[in-house]
Task: inverse folding
């Protein structure tokens, strides 16, 4: 664990550089950003300390703008009440923006608190598309990904490449249902059919053999796994054990580089999945990776931490334009400015933030390489398809967000 | 458990004459300190943190009623705490009940739950009792994962604090704090009253030697069931209050880890003491808060405290103090 | 012979077979728990963590020492068993004179500590561990493909259960153990070193858990939470089977695996809860468990 678990004070060279003879002799304002993530539980590897590192990176890149930036980090342990308590305390004690927050239940709670206190909430880790839908707020920006993007990215693309009959193995809770429902819709829109689905108890299931056998019996061409992290890994292991992968394509609806690492390329090869960031995608992402590696235990950035980087960078740009004092005073104003400015960063490239708080950027369909194709550790993906940002996310009118004037 | 506490039929420790309302002098002093802390606390500490602490303290006191005075270790108490929270949240948000009615609703439902589960569980003792309560709590957990009204993984969000009795708005943290403090004190004193009543004496007799109590003519199962229901109801009230304070009710509150935490709080504070659960809750909640930044080590430290308490520190903080001062706390 | 209750017969048989295989895991794990409780009156909540340590030991042996699965089957249980012995000597033995429940709380705490430490060290995503080459592939049984590895698990589990049962019921050592639970002082008076026997028995129970872990490593994700997910179910198995009865736990383990398998076919969402429902019912009807002595 790096020392980023504690408060990190970024030495404001800007503050030191203010000439003392300046007429107003203002003290540089301090923008405080809190990284609230899962530092000890199942999502620790995909978010966790990595998010703090990437946020710190964004803060260092925005030094010398007339204000100092302080980055704090804490563990919400995937518990909404722990997260809510930390968020309240942070906001009451001068934190201006909270970043990351994986786990949808915690994210929704934080969004409410940010709205109440007129601060800024830059979500990178959570999947629920409700953050820009029924529960949208003028204080929330939803970066990185959501269930709609995942469903469209994987569902539509797989059908177009021939996988037109699907069987779902779904985690029996809101996230799993949403993922299955959204993906099924895209499958059907693209001309495919859903032959069946089975819901398993979450989070209690470790053995997926029964469900895999049911999938096999269905005769579908594609196995859609509407679950995440360990469950996906276990499902894939079972599927390979029963030889499912020889007759069916395995589509992981939420999976990242860290999970592929946990699975191993031998078991993971051929998997298709959707992400909005991959370290080895282009020169810009590779440049970011090179900057990050020394502070990140030699690892490249993953998707969610990259989102923290992009969101923090853009937020600080908005603060610089608005002036720190105004940005601190009103989260709504800061977010409005963020929506007015087009975004561009090394992680996601050019993009923009919509009225409902949804960040738009290109989305990629990847296939996991075989051990032979990979040049080494972390080199796991080959690019199959790209969806432009404007097409990849739920259309504005369909979300049910009250901020959208119809 | 039985070996560590005084037998109910023996004379109390010297200096422990029941001074007022069932409290001994040292206990009154401790109560005075507690009330003083409650009164000035919000001006020094963050009120929301204090409210969380009070809710858990009440939860731990309710749990202690069962383990400390009746000798039954319930390993599934989160079921009542969490369900109380869900019901109150639903009542406040969807049915629009005022906060005091929502909390009462939470308490009642938890009490009914306690009646059913208690009836099933008390037929066994010791480890079997604990395992049954755990199993029943697991069923509640899975029920909550599935049931639409609980919101599944998202939980019930944006629970309104409303206006107390329809007249006093609770939006301000400080206002809500006084209400929560009142609820806590009320529950705390109620538990104390129960324990120091003839009913409480019988409960203690059952803990010490159930066959003897039965031979004296007491229907021990009925007493155990009533104690169980009371404990569940108060745990439900604690959970209901907590969900109003934070505005959310989630699966964390019905998970078995929460059941483990309340055991830890009571153990650290002192099983079977009056103030133990309060102190224990304070310690654990504070620790979780301050260790939040160290995230990964919280589980290890909590486990370590469990181990240390069981091996060397069985009386808990309050128990040790009481032992040192040779009083009952 | 096409559909039984609306489910195609091949699928049903396939699920039953899978249930049996899962039952083998439950049986193995509950065996260790039953041995420890039945003979030592200790409720070993650390069992899940020890199962997890067995799986991690197998991974470590492969990663750091290049020793493959077959070595791990022997070495991992011994290593983890030794940690169990240390735990018993240092901590658990101090609690024998107290209420059972302190043992429960202590082992619960130790389980948390172990899980937390492993999570810090290894992260929570899990580590890969492959099925050994000799056991890869599947048999085509007509109604389903049965992976050879899973067949091996059933055989290994059955063999271990049988061996343990024989050891306890039919050997002199087993007789001493059983006698010691009835009257330790008397057995000690006969010159048998009871504390040492108790310690070794605890170690053996822990080794059984670790063996389960090694068997699980190739097919379940090797992560620090793998034990705590299983432990509550296994406890339910032991309680249903009767906490003192080894035969009871084994039979219940297999039985429950089958019931769970059937539930997965007809009502999969409930497959996690069914075991607790059964436990509640059994305890109401036969409080000592199906095979227990009250």
Result:
């Amino acid at each position: 664990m790096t020392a980023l678990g504690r408060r990190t004070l970024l030495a404001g060279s800007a503050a030191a550089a203010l000439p003392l003879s300046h007429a107003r002799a203002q003290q540089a304002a301090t923008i405080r950003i809190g990284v609230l993530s899962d530092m000890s539980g199942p999502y620790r590897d995909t978010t966790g300390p990595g998010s703090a590192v990437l946020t710190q990176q964004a803060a260092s890149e925005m030094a010398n703008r007339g204000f100092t930036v302080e980055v704090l980090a804490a563990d919400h342990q995937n518990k909404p009440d722990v997260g809510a308590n930390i968020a309240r305390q942070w906001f009451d004690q001068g934190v201006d923006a909270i970043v990351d927050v994986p786990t949808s239940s915690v994210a929704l709670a934080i969004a409410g608190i940010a709205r109440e206190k007129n601060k800024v909430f830059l979500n990178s880790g959570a999947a629920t598309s409700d953050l820009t839908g029924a529960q949208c707020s003028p204080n929330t920006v939803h970066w990185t990904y959501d269930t709609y993007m995942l469903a469209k990215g994987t569902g539509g693309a797989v059908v177009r490449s021939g996988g037109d009959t699907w069987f779902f193995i779904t985690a029996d809770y809101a996230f799993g249902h949403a993922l299955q429902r959204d993906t099924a819709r895209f499958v059907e829109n693209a001309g495919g059919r859903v032959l069946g689905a089975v819901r398993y108890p979450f989070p209690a299931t470790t053995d997926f053999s029964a469900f895999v056998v049911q999938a096999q019996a269905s005769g579908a061409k594609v196995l859609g796994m509407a679950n995440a992290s360990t469950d996906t890994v276990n499902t894939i292991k079972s599927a390979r054990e029963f030889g499912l992968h020889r007759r069916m394509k395995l589509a992981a609806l939420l999976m990242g580089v860290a999970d592929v690492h946990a699975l191993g390329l031998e078991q993971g090869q051929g998997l298709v999945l959707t992400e909005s960031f991959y370290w080895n995608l282009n020169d810009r992402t590779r440049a970011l990776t090179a900057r990050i590696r020394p502070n990140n235990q030699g690892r490249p950035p993953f998707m969610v931490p990259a989102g923290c980087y992009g969101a923090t960078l853009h937020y600080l740009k908005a603060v610089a334009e608005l002036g720190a004092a105004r940005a601190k005073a009103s989260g709504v104003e800061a977010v409005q400015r963020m929506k007015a400015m087009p975004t561009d960063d090394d992680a996601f490239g050019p993009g923009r933030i919509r009225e409902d708080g949804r960040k738009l950027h290109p989305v990629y369909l990847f296939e996991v390489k075989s051990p032979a194709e990979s040049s080494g550790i972390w080199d796991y993906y080959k690019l199959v398809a790209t969806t432009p940002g404007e097409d990849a996310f739920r259309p504005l009118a369909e979300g049910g967000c009250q901020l959208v004037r119809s | 458990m039985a070996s560590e506490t005084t037998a109910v039929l023996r004379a109390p420790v010297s200096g422990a004459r029941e001074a007022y309302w069932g409290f001994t002098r040292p206990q009154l002093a401790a109560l005075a300190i507690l009330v003083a802390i409650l009164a000035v606390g919000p001006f020094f500490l963050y009120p929301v943190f204090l409210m969380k602490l009070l809710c858990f303290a009440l939860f731990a006191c309710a749990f202690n009623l069962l383990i400390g005075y009746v000798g039954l270790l319930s390993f599934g108490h989160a079921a009542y705490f969490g369900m109380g929270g869900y019901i109150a949240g639903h009542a406040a948000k969807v049915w629009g009940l005022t906060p005091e009615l929502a909390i009462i609703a939470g308490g009642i439902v938890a009490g009914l739950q306690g009646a059913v589960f208690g009836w099933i569980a008390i037929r066994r003792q010791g480890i079997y009792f604990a395992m049954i309560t755990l199993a029943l709590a697991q069923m509640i957990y899975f029920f909550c994962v599935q049931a639409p009204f609980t919101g599944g993984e998202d939980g019930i969000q944006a629970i309104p604090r409303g206006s107390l009795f329809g007249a006093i708005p609770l939006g301000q943290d400080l206002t809500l704090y006084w209400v929560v403090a009142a609820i806590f004190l009320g529950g705390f004193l109620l538990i104390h009253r129960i324990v120091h009543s003839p009913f409480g004496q019988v409960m203690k007799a059952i803990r010490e030697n159930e066959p003897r109590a039965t031979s004296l003519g007491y229907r021990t199962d009925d007493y155990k069931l009533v104690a169980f229901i009371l404990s569940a109801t108060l745990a439900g009230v604690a959970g209901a209050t907590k969900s109003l304070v934070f505005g959310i009710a989630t699966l964390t509150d019905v998970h078995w880890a929460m059941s483990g935490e309340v055991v830890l709080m009571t153990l650290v504070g002192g099983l079977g003491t009056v103030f133990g659960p309060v102190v224990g809750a304070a310690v654990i909640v504070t620790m979780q808060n301050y260790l939040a930044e160290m995230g990964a080590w919280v589980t290890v430290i909590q486990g370590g405290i469990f181990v240390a308490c069981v091996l060397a520190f069985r009386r808990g903080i309050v128990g040790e103090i009481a032992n040192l001062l040779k009083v009952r706390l | 012979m096409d559909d039984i209750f609306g489910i195609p017969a091949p699928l049903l048989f396939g699920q039953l077979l899978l249930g049996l295989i899962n039952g083998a895991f439950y049986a193995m794990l509950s065996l260790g728990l039953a041995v420890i409780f039945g003979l030592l009156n200790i409720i070993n909540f650390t069992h899940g963590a020890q199962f997890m340590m067995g799986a991690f030991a197998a991974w470590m042996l492969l990663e750091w020492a290049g020793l493959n699965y077959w070595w791990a089957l022997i070495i991992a249980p011994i290593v983890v068993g030794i940690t169990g012995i240390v735990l018993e000597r240092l901590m658990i033995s101090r609690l024998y004179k107290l209420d059972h429940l302190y043992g429960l709380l202590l082992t619960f705490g130790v389980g948390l500590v172990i899980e937390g430490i492993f999570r810090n060290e290894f992260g929570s995503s899990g580590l890969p561990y492959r099925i050994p080459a000799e056991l890869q592939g599947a048999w085509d049984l007509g109604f389903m493909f049965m992976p050879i590895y899973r067949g091996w698990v059933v055989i290994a589990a059955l063999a271990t259960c049988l061996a343990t049962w024989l050891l306890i019921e039919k050997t002199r050592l087993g007789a001493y153990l059983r006698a010691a639970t009835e009257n330790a002082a008397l057995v000690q008076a006969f010159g048998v070193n009871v504390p040492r026997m108790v310690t070794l028995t605890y170690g053996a129970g822990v080794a059984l858990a670790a063996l389960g872990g090694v068997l699980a490593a190739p097919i379940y994700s090797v992560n620090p939470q793998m034990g705590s997910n299983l432990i509550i179910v296994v406890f339910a198995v032991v309680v249903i089977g009767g906490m003192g009865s080894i035969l009871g736990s084994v039979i219940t383990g297999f039985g429950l695996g089958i019931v769970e398998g059937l539930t997965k076919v007809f009502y999969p969402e409930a497959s996690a809860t069914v075991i607790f429902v059964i436990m509640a019912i059994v305890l109401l009807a036969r409080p000592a468990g199906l095979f227990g002595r009250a």
